[in-house]
Amino acid sequence: MESYVSVWPVLALAFIHFFGTRLRFLAGVPRSIWLSGAGGVSVAYVFLHLFPELGEGQEHVEKLNWAEQFLSHHVYLMALVGLSVFYGLERSVVSAKREQAHKTRDEEPKTPAGVFWLHISSFSIYNALIGYILFQREEGPTHELLLFSIAMALHFLINDFALKEHHQEHYKKYGRWVLVLALVAGWATGFIVEMPKTVIVLVMAFVGGGVILNVLKEELPEERESRYWAFALGAFLYAILLLSL
């Protein structure tokens, strides 16, 4: 890993956290066609590239005694865990804001500090895992790293707008900095710690489940007025790219 080629994707993802939400043409209702398209790209990558890769990695998990004794699909169980964790986080934020609005009668209630830090801490772990995966991608073909980086860059853009909507100035002042530090820390950990293949596969599964939930929760609410055609077009075009390689 002497080329350190993954430093460029890390810097690009950090750049998105710093400046992504300043792209005002992506904000507002109805939902930007670019954000919907970005969601389609992210989901297409998970289903057509990441999950098949996890299927190949399942053999590493099955070598563990405890895995053989319980379930034969721990990889996909971890994807379910990732999806469930981020669904629970989203519900906790929405419920906290609704309760705050009821108490203060504020049309735009602020997220309680405890919920904000729980939310950001969870996404920090998520970012750190993605940073580590970026480092590990250096071992494979360059196009594999590029495909993953593009999908995660667009996914980060979606997450940034969602987090800013939930937390407003708290995200701008603190949240994005924490996420960037977590991303870089996760990537840098790759220089120090070499995780077993089994752990890497499970980490990728968790991230895959998180990507699916974090994209769909932004697309499905009726008040978003999302552009389905843009989501479908993004997924279709990226699927063609993935299948052609």
Q: Can you give a write-up of this model?
A:
- With 245 residues, this protein is mainly α.
- It has one domain.
- The protein is built from 9 helices and no strands.
- The chain has helices spanning 7-19, 33-61, 65-69, 74-104, 113-136, 142-167, 169-192, 197-219, 228-244.
- Helix 1 (7-19) packs parallel to helix 6.
- The chain is globular.
- The two termini are 24 Å apart.
- The chain crosses the membrane at residues 6-25, 32-51, 71-90, 111-133, 145-162, 174-193, 199-216, 228-244.
Mean pLDDT: 86
Question: What fraction strand?
Answer: under 5%
State the distance separating the first and last CA atoms: 24 Å
Structural class: mainly alpha
Transmembrane segments: 6-25, 32-51, 71-90, 111-133, 145-162, 174-193, 199-216, 228-244
Protein name: ZIP Zinc transporter
Keywords: Membrane, Transmembrane, Transmembrane helix
Walk me through the topology.
Layout: H1 7-19, H2 33-61, H3 65-69, H4 74-104, H5 113-136, H6 142-167, H7 169-192, H8 197-219, H9 228-244
Helix pairs in contact: 1-6, 1-7, 2-6, 2-8, 2-9, 4-5, 4-8, 5-7, 5-8, 6-7, 6-8
Keywords: Membrane, Transmembrane, Transmembrane helix
Protein name: ZIP Zinc transporter
Transmembrane segments: 6-25, 32-51, 71-90, 111-133, 145-162, 174-193, 199-216, 228-244
Offer a few descriptive terms:
245 residues; mainly alpha; 9 helices; globular
Short characterization:
It contains nine helices and no strands. It is mostly helical and 245 residues long.
